[in-house]
């Protein structure tokens, strides 16, 4: 990155996550290209990208948007904002964007996105990343942020990536985005996974809000047991989480305002393709790799997978 020109950021997937953080970077004066599709792409091209937020509403207009990565050129930074289940499929389309100094930042839920990208792209260019934000696409070209301090967490996947991590941290911080650098990005990814995946899966089965899940004894026991399975699986894969991670996560969820639902839960409930295979399915796959039984997740997956297949058009 050079201080003599705006950083060129490409946001692949301009939905809730990519649209919000990419919008903040564009509003700060960086050259941002949004990769989108359909009516969302048409609206961004025509009217710009609108972001509604308690932190301040704004419109990026004109906005640069396309569905053709080959037309964009090499980026300084690529933010990958697609859903976790789509990462492997879209990874080859990122190739034209990545040069020798490009930093690729996955922002998905789950723990497999960076590895999926690094299997296709130059390994050293893919750092670890995740985000925290409560936002959604509320109309073509419109992103609405409703809560949680929008935060990006980045971290090195190996000892040679420190400078790349600093570049991304500085880029986001100068744009007014809260950014954290994780000493252990794998632990940070698994800790977030322990929060969002049991909530999304159990919410998808019960179709109730988080406050109901947490205060109902039976579902609270299932939520706790599902989190414990994730913690056990993390340890089996060499990732050390704090001994009190389940307790701390439950305490955090207890404090979430009433009426909250997880993004995977919303997709499942509304019969849209969801991250079920990339989240709950990943728990089953990773458990099988280590010979670890995850009975709560097996139950959740068995209950939810028929609806997921219907949402994806399967017989």
Unreliable residue runs:
none
Per DSSP E runs of 2 or more residues, the count of β-strands stands at 10
Number of helices: 12
Structural class: alpha/beta
Give the tally of structural domains: 2
CATH topology of the largest domain: Rossmann fold
Distance between the termini: 49 Å
**CATH homology superfamily of the largest domain:** NAD(P)-binding Rossmann-like Domain
CATH architecture of the largest domain: 3-Layer(aba) Sandwich
| Shape label | globular
Strand percentage lies at 15-25%
Order of helices and strands: EHEHEEEEHEHEEHEHHHHHHH
The biggest sheet amounts to: 5 strands, parallel
- What is the residue-averaged pLDDT? 94
User: Rg, please?
Assistant: 19 Å
What's the CATH C level of the largest domain?
A: Alpha Beta
* Helical residues, percent: 40-55%
| Order of strands, widest sheet | 5-2-1-6-7
Detailed description of the structure:
This protein is 44% helix and 18% strand. By secondary structure, it is of the alpha/beta class. It folds into two domains: 176 residues, Rossmann fold; 124 residues, N-(1-d-carboxylethyl)-l-norvaline Dehydrogenase, domain 2. The strands form two sheets. The protein has a five-stranded parallel β-sheet with strand order 5-2-1-6-7. Strands 3, 4, 8, 9 and 10 form a five-stranded mixed β-sheet that branches. β1, α1 and β2 form a beta-alpha-beta unit. The longest helix is centred in the middle third of the chain and has 22 residues. The termini are far apart. The mean pLDDT is 94.
């Amino acid at each position: 990155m050079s201080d003599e020109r705006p950083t060129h950021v490409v946001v692949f997937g301009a939905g809730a996550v990519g649209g919000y953080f990419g919008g903040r970077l564009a509003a700060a004066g960086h050259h941002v290209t949004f990769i989108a599709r359909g009516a969302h792409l048409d609206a961004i091209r025509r009217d710009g990208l609108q972001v509604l937020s308690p932190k301040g509403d704004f419109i990026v207009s004109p906005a640069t948007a396309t569905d053709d990565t080959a037309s964009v050129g090499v980026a300084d930074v690529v933010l990958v904002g697609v859903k976790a289940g789509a990462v492997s499929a879209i990874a080859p389309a990122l190739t034209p964007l990545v040069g020798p100094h490009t930093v690729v930042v996955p922002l998905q839920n789950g723990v497999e996105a960076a590895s999926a990208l690094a299997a296709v792209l130059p390994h050293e260019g893919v750092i670890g990343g995740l985000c925290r934000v409560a936002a959604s696409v509320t109309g073509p070209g419109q992103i609405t942020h409703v809560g949680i301090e929008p935060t990006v967490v980045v971290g090195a996947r190996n000892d040679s990536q420190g400078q790349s991590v600093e570049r991304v941290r500085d880029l986001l911080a100068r744009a007014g985005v809260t950014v954290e650098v994780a000493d252990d990005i794998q632990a940070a990814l698994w800790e977030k996974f322990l929060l969002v995946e049991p909530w999304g899966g159990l919410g998808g089965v019960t179709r109730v809000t988080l406050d109901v899940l947490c205060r109902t004894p039976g579902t609270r026991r299932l939520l706790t047991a599902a989190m414990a399975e994730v913690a056990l699986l993390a340890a089996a894969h060499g990732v050390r989480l704090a001994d009190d991670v389940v307790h701390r996560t439950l305490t955090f969820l207890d404090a979430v305002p009433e009426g909250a639902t997880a993004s995977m839960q919303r997709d499942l409930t509304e019969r849209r393709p969801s991250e079920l295979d990339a989240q709950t399915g990943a728990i089953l796959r990773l458990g099988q790799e280590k010979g670890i039984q995850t009975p709560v997740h097996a139950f959740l997956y068995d209950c939810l997978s028929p609806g997921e297949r219907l949402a994806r058009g399967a017989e």
